[in-house]
Amino acid sequence: MGFARACSVALVGVDGVVVEVQADLEPGVAAFTLVGLPDKTLVESRDRVRAAVVNSGAAWPQKKLTVGLSPASVPKGGSGFDLAVAAAVLGAAEVVDPGAITDLVLIGELGLDGRVRPVRGILPAVLAAAEAGYRQVVVPQQCAAEATLVPDVSVLGVRSLRQLIAVLTDGAVPEEEPPDPPGRPDPMLAGLVLPGAGLGTGLSSTPGGWEGLDLADVAGQRPARRGLEVAAAGGHHILLSGPPGAGKTLLAERLPGIMPPLTRQESLEVTAVHSVAGILPPGEPLVTVPPYCAPHHSATMQALVGGGSGLPRPGAVSLAHKGVLFLDEAPEFRPQVLDALRQPLESGHIVVARAAGVVRLPARFLMVLAANPCPCGRHTLHGAGCDCAPSSIRRYQARLSGPLLDRVDLRIEVEPVTRSDLLGHGGRGETSATVAGRVVEARARAARRLDGTPWRINSEVPGRELRTRWQLAPGALAQAERDLERGLLTARGLDRVLRVAWTVADLRGRDRPEALDVAVALELRTGIARGATLAAGAEP
Description:
Number of strands: 16
CATH class of the largest domain: Alpha Beta
CATH architecture of the largest domain: 3-Layer(aba) Sandwich
Low-confidence stretches: 182-210, 534-540
CATH topology of the largest domain: Rossmann fold
Number of helices: 23
Radius of gyration: 27 Å
Structural class: alpha/beta
Number of domains: 3
CATH superfamily of the largest domain: P-loop containing nucleotide triphosphate hydrolases
Strand order of the largest sheet: 11-12-15-10-16
Mean pLDDT: 87
Strand content: 15-25%
Shape: elongated
């Protein structure tokens, strides 16, 4: 009889659970039994592992073989257990020393020829192993750079099972052909993220470093540009409303370029999500800039918030974690899909419950909604010939529900571009780098004020804390209180006005908001002109 064990990691959402892979050989009719709540892909590993072991020059044990995955109550899926199963079987057959693999975490898929192929979720898997106290991991060579992002863990990247056997038996490590270039991101998910937008491709790690996407390219739209600056500085959700061709999409695409680069911790969080989704670009294991996710308006509930067969997978709200979620043509999304955003907008995470289990996924994103004024888009244009019936316009605008809009801090009317702006007679606007510099300073000012609290930006601070911990200038809230009494603001709306007012004050370098800062926040929130617009002299 022979027994050996190795370790691997099962992913539940973006969280990993260390799994002990036990192999037991007993006399009897040759058979291979796999137990421990495996899914279809994992059950098929029996054939992959057997072929890989034989084609790697090792003898397959002709005995009754049982492989158990513990804890058995945790659902397990995917091909990432292949390498651990193969090592445990070889240890039980005494091809390798069983003691050499006991504390070894192995992650990787095996080809029938013994080559080790990359799998999704290497970073969160290695993070889980490190948190459980393991210090040695074996991964496919293509994923080694991603695994080395975890500190205090020794990473061995292998190209084939033959190389792993040689390392474990202190033999000569055979030369292997370089692995095939890693495939492009999963086409089923990669379409949610613009190529090169927030995944590091062609991007600088400095604020405003989005190559080819500069805020200065947007003609006119001074109020909208200032609104974007406020959104970036405080992490506030924003609605851009205006006719087609006014520049709503151009503005949204340039928003990540004025946001600060991700901190180390944020980079690891975002990279873990993208690794599980399989959309990390080749050669760039760490996401350092805010991601930009723009799903099509035909996206399903599962594509937006997460789901799928088996354990739920990350959706667009998680792929946009610490970045921007842009919903173009927002009224064209199904109302049920849009209303599913209400919970993550408040909590910063999404909990998806399915028959296979419950998964909690991160979803702290900055949402940008873009909408036309009516189905044809010409309702607000004088003399443009809008043929939409009033009832049709009301139905169209009602697709954005009141509870969803109540969670949007900034509502910007994007006016049509004038001839003078389009021809550049008014001069070129500020570059993304210039605006990003002010945003970084405003966030640093907010971080100093919030030091010692769980929050880092104004949009995360609960309303109660804003009302009690930090004082505004005397009389600054008089107009907001009147709007609350008149029903123009809800209690949630007042809290969000306070958050925006603090952001405006941070952009101006003030220690606390004054009446003018609150007036700007109210105008951005309600869209009612109060003579204090950012474009009319109350600029940051």
